[in-house]
Amino acid sequence: MRSRLFVFVPLLVCLYTAVVLPQNPPNGTAITGQVPVSQHVFLIVLENTGYATATDPTNPTGYMPSLVALGSTYGHATNYVTNSSGSLLDYLWLSSGYCHSDPSSTADCVYAPFPSGVTGLHDFGCTGGACVNPATQDYWPITDDNIYREMIHHTPSPISWKLYAESIPYAGYTGDRVSDPSSPYYGYDPHHNPPLWYSDVGRSHAQAAQQLNMVPFTQFVTDLGNNALPQYSIIIPDDNHDAHDGTPAEADTWLQTNVFTPLLSQPFFQPGGDGLLIITFDNGDDDGAAPVYTAVIGPKIKPGYVSNTLFHHQDALLTILQSLGISAHPGFSAVAKGLGEFFPVTGPIAELSATSISFSNQTVGTTSTTRSFTLYNAGNAALPIASIGVSPGDFAQTNNCPASLDIAAFCTISLTFTPSVLGKETATVTIVDSLTPNQVVSISGTGATPALTVGRYGTGFGTITDTTGAVNCYPVCTVHFPFGTVVDLIATPLPGSVFAGWGVDCSGKAGCSVTMNTNADVHATFNAQIPPRPTTAVVDSTNALASNLVGLFLVNEGTGTTDVNLADGNIANFAGTQPPTWYSGDHTLGFQGGASLNSYLDAGTDLAFDQMPTSQITLVAKVLASTIAPAGIAEKEDGNHSSGFLFGWNPYGALRLTVEKSTGDMRVATGAGVIPAGKWVQVAFTWDGTVGSASAAHLFINGIEQAKAVSSDGSGKIGYKNATNQPFRIGNVSFDPMAGSLKGRIAYLAVYKGRILTSTELNQLDAQLPIK
Which residues, at least 6 apart from 89, have a Cβ–Cβ distance to it below 8 Å? Predict the structure, then answer.
């Protein structure tokens, strides 16, 4: 991970190849062809191997004969120099055309002002191993433009992609490297996984669907066999097979067996196919910015082509963007030359951004929104266009295509659908140009009855139904009704929430009635109900919910650095590097989150909590998580990390209880996603005190018991007798793999010792706290 100066000059390197033609002209001016759009684009990134090492046949551990043979057969670059010392920085150059580090501390990053055309670049604290926000010490997602954003939001349709990472624990895994060297997942390195560091994929639960594109390498074999590969595939061997921990020769053998043999035998890598495979390295020997062997492979590559042009990772990025039909050029790819010289120049080439377009259900007699695709001339001569037409059916097209499309120009064909009958319709857009065959795009759409879309909004929870039983929305649904149907909607809040009113095509709090003569959209807003209480409160001993109550924190003073446990009058202190934020209007408190000690409530030596989990216990909190990240609601530990308990959730929104024990820990957890972002929820756990029995612990959300996705009994004793002077903490987590703290708000925390609340009692607590 050492920093080295980024030198943009040609370097003298050793070349080993039996093929020397065709090459660049002697004057160094390469003839650049247009990169054709491909449906089968692959990138393989290896580690820490310089050009001379990979191509030296006298080096038995460094020489990579399979890779060199492929580069000699297809094409390879002799002067491809990596950008930055440190692995992650180079993966970022290959993804967004920049290193996203502070140039003043990273010598081979690039200072502003940037060249004309290079915009939107920022420092996200990236190093060779991570991108960390110095203010919070959290991983810092990069929000600059990048190839993943361009694929996800590509129009008229997204571009499919996957990262096949060897030894990643499971699809969508966003955690850190497994620390146990004996684990089968130990070889996976998160800082070799570029989409993990961008906000468009990253670690946020909001991007969970995109994170599922990060899959184990074993899926590559399955997708290849099922003809289900995405348009763009990134292949990342683990550290044993990428020359990071193993040798380059071992990496070469692994590639030949697992990638080259099965992949290059596919039809798209045969003559007439469109496959494109780029193989490069993050850095040279010892992870330093240096020349590396880079092969460009595919049936459209000039055979045996050797380039002496100076290239960097942004050139590979530009070529990949071009091959995917992406017009945007993030970062330094905007001024990169690209690898176009590896492709032959042939006359006009017509490239379509889509070969099929489907319209969703469209109400009969109404016109859809516009769907578009582009025609791009990827050749070296103008493309004459005679006509563009669509038939048959209820589709219409408009376009801005000229009679002759210039080199590297594109035009747009826009389509609409106005069904005249119910049912599915199909048609064809035919572009008659100078090429044979004509360019054809298939289109389809379905004429449908009017659609009613109903959605749940707000900070609370509830269901939306109708009197016919057709609608049952939680949280959003779309239902089609015959013309003229009158639909009467009913909003029913769940416990702890109130119905706040209708929106869009209905308003107010009364009933909602919609006549289905056209599509309609109705919003129902439910807000969480914060239990009302005075700003100065005492426990109401006559309330049944006060029995066995040992802790009640209302966090409702509105200002200050302390809070009181209403159950025994002991004072708790707010601690950490950031003070809490008070919300006196609704009597809640906002913890700052971030590092584990940023902001928390410390009950200190309040003996009511000592040895708490040795009998029946109930812990209940009303919380709102602004973002789903590892969070602690309550923690008790003895200072040596061998006993205590932790209640909170993990980065995937799974509710968790961990009881730390002298040998094995007891853990209980729900499935992922039960904790929503931006919603008030009541979270609770109960435990009957049975040592070493996870079945004795139960987790609840809004009074509803959750199924356990994880249940681990553990073993050993709970050593609380030595923990008398250790803190009971709220909003903080400092041990267990779920490190983090609550970034959000809390309305109350109630703790019962020697009592287990039922679901009914949990709902009663949320509606009426035992205070007066």
Answer: 83, 99, 100, 101, 106, 108, 109, 126, 127, 128
Distance of CA 515 to the CA centre of its chain: 40
Give every residue of the chain whose pLDDT is below 50, as ranges.
Answer: 1-29, 31, 641-642, 720-724
Evaluate whether 728 touches 617 at the Cβ level (below 8 Å).
Answer: no
In whole angstroms, what is the distance from residue 464 CA to residue 472 CA?
Answer: 6
pTM over 0.85: no
CA distance 325 to 534: 62
CA contacts within 13 A on the Cβ side of 239:
15
Question: Would you state the pLDDT for residue 4?
Answer: 30
CA angle 168–171–174, rounded 5-degree value: 70
Q: Which helix (H) or strand (E) holds 209?
A: helix 208-211
Task: Determine the Cα–Cα distance for residues 182 and 264; give it in Å rounded to an integer.
Answer: 33
| Rounded Cα–Cα distance for residues 358 and 157 (Å) | 10
Which pLDDT value is given to residue 717?
54
Q: What's the pLDDT score for residue 18?
A: 28
* CB-CB contact of 311 with 294 (8 Å): yes
- For the residues of 508-522, what is the DSSP string, one character each? BSS-EEEEESS-EEE
Cα gap 290→310, rounded to integer Å: 12
Question: Which residues neighbour 394 within 8 Å (Cβ) at sequence distance 6 or greater?
Answer: 417, 418, 419, 420, 425, 445, 447
Distance CA 581, CA 567 (A): 24
Residues 6+ apart with CB under 8 A from 209: none
Helices 313-323 and 87-96, packing angle to 10 deg = 40
> Tokens for 615?
């009998």
What pLDDT does residue 3 have?
33
Residue 436: count of CB within 10 angstroms of its CB: 5
- For the beta sheet containing 472-473, the strands, ordered from the edge strand earlier in sequence to the opposite edge, are 472-473, 462-466, 485-493, 512-516
